[in-house]
Amino acid sequence: MTPTTVIDLGRQAIEITLLVSAPLFLAALVTGLIISVFQAATQINEMTLSFVPKLVMIFVTLVVAGPWMITTLTDFMRRLFESIPAMIG
Question: Transmembrane region positions (predicted)?
């Protein structure tokens, strides 16, 4: 196993991590932005007002995008495990 192979595997792992986590981060970001605008407009500064909707939207996003996330992760792991014999020899 060469250093180039290790770096390439690390790069692929980081790309998969960012790709899988992006829908959840975007859902939290958009929900937080909408709630912040609402709080600024109404001057309501309640912490649970921002926490609960974010939690609900992350859960909904996880339900919707969950199968794709699992498929992406299992495909990466399958490719990784299948390449082990080539890396050793």
Answer: 16-39, 51-70
Which amino acid would we find at residue 80? L
- Rounded to whole angstroms, the Cα distance separating 52 from 38 reads 14
> Are the C-beta atoms of residues 35 and 49 closer than 8 Å to each other?
yes
d(CA 77, CA 89): 19
CA 42 to mean position of chain CA atoms: 32
Six-digit token string for 47: 């912490």
pLDDT in tens, 30-40: 999 999 999 88
Q: Which domain holds residue 71?
A: 3-88
Angle at 17 between CA 62 and CA 69, to 5 degrees: 35
Output the six-digit token pair for 67: 């199968």
Task: Tell me which H or E stretch contains 27.
Answer: helix 3-42
Q: How far apart are CA 22 and CA 30, in angstroms?
A: 12
Q: Domain total for the chain?
A: 1
